[in-house]
Design brief:
single chain, 15 helices, TATA-Binding Protein, 3 domains, Alpha-D-Glucose-1,6-Bisphosphate, Chain A, domain 3, 5-stranded antiparallel sheet, 6-stranded mixed sheet
């Protein structure tokens, strides 16, 4: 019988599960395999470069095989490559904690179309894992060995190259952060004709820089672009579902601007993005549909129709290839863009508006009181898609609960810095005042 503690270990978020690796977490992977095999018989499994990935993978294999599953092992592989390979299977399983530190690991689950498991699928698995488990009566004739799948990376690269036949005369610095794209993206770009300078492209589970490709973690890449006179710098996270670009002047390109550039290069008309993306996306002339924050929600909406989807943190979804964020295909797209025009020129041609962000420790339960207070700001419209977004005409304000911490995320954008600060200070003051009242009520009980 499976103990209910595994339900806590396998409480899936929209981006899978992530935990600091322990023996109990590895054991839980076995039970996930058992539950997963009851609904998905043919699966492909891959993992990133973390040192805990083999242990997690073998535990998962044991559960899948004990449940009668047929399993192929794609080895060390980027997440978008695994999701692309899943088109030949009933499901794909990726062992990764994405951009989390190396002591973490986790599991992402993919459908055959490259989309992440949806909420219904995740809840069903959670209930199966938590319930008393009746082990399947599998005979030795029903058990199979894990088969190697050595072609997944080449298939993904070949598919990407098919859309970019021209040879590019570019110098590109690639920073893979020691992750799963370390050998993939440099090889892809060289086949596209680029001169590639590899930075942190030796696969290692200890990560030579923090895995998240945020501006503060890319100082070495920025310096390399400047000193080598490169046309472009590209950075991935640990599993390769994100791509961040550095222009020829050594500036990290804001994600909202990169979204616009990629969408324009694809001749996209309908663009799916998140509720916290900049208003410059609408101003660029696209038909824009916004979703909750999280690339899985963008992916789900693209199923209903969309030419391109993205999240400013670096997740780019190309539905003609897969519904999984694909940092590798995005690298090819950005390189193709830069082959026609300097990236710095393209970036500077797009307006920049001040965006202010804060994470405020507080009780998520105060959202109802916050909404009442925020209405005093007299917004032109209100969106409740993910938290509360107020459209003020010359800007907007978003407050939403964190999905992982007891905090509220506050994001503000306006056309002028003074107005952005005004909205930000008003929003922060409302949240803090509501929290104080809530604390006073609790103390008075």
């Amino acid at each position: 019988m499976i103990n209910n503690r595994y339900r806590q270990k396998f409480s899936f978020g929209s981006s899978g599960i992530r935990e600091i690796v322990t023996a109990e977490f590895i054991e839980a992977a076995y039970h996930l395999g058992l539950s997963l095999s009851s609904g998905y018989h043919r699966l492909i499994v891959g993992g990133d470069t973390r040192v805990s990935t083999p242990a997690m993978k073998y535990a998962l294999f044991s559960g899948l095989l004990a449940g009668g599953g047929e399993v192929q092992d794609a080895g060390v592989i980027p997440t978008p490559t695994l999701a692309f390979a899943a088109r030949h299977f009933q499901a794909g399983v990726m062992i990764t904690a994405s951009h989390n530190p190396p002591e973490y690991n986790g599991i992402k689950l993919w459908n055959a179309d490259g989309s992440a498991f949806n909420e219904t699928q995740r809840e069903l698995l959670e209930s199966q894992i938590a319930a008393p488990y009746k082990y399947p009566d599998i005979s030795r004739n029903q058990m199979s060995d894990v088969q190697a799948n050595p072609s997944a990376i080449n298939d993904h690269v070949t598919r990407t190259l098919s859309d970019f036949p021209d040879s590019l005369n570019l110098k590109v610095v690639v920073d893979a952060g020691g992750g799963a794209t370390s050998l993939v993206t440099p090889n892809l770009l060289r086949q596209m004709g680029c001169q590639v300078i590899s930075l942190n492209c030796h696969p290692t589970g200890f990560f030579p820089r923090p895995s998240e490709p945020s501006p503060e973690n890319l100082a070495t890449l920025i310096q390399a672009v400047k000193t080598t006179g490169a046309d472009l710098g590209l950075a991935h996270d640990g599993d390769g579902d994100r791509l961040v670009a550095v222009d020829d002047m050594g500036r990290v390109v804001p994600g909202d601007k990169l979204l616009i550039l990629i969408a324009n290069s694809l001749n996209a008309r309908k663009v799916i993005t998140t509720v916290d993306a900049s208003m410059i996306v609408e101003e660029a002339g696209f038909q824009v549909l916004r979703t909750r924050v999280g690339d899985a929600f963008v992916s789900q909406e693209i199923k209903n129709g969309g030419d391109f989807g993205g999240e400013a943190a670096g997740a780019w979804i190309f539905p003609q290839v897969s519904l999984c964020p694909d940092g590798i295909y995005a690298a090819a797209v950005v390189a193709h863009i830069v082959s026609k025009e300097r990236l710095s020129v393209l970036v500077d041609a797009i307006p920049s508006y001040p965006i202010l962000r804060a994470s405020i420790p507080t009780d998520k339960q105060i959202m109802a009181r916050i909404e009442e207070e925020f209405m005093r700001l007299q917004p032109l419209s209100v969106t409740r898609l993910d938290g509360l977004r107020l459209d003020m005409g010359d800007g907007w304000l978003l407050v939403r609960p964190s999905g992982t911490e007891p905090k509220l995320r506050l994001t503000v954008e306006a056309r002028e810095q003074k107005r952005a600060e005004e909205l930000f200070n008003s929003g922060k003051a409302v949240i803090q005042a509501c929290q104080k009242r809530s604390n006073a009520i609790v103390e008075g009980l």
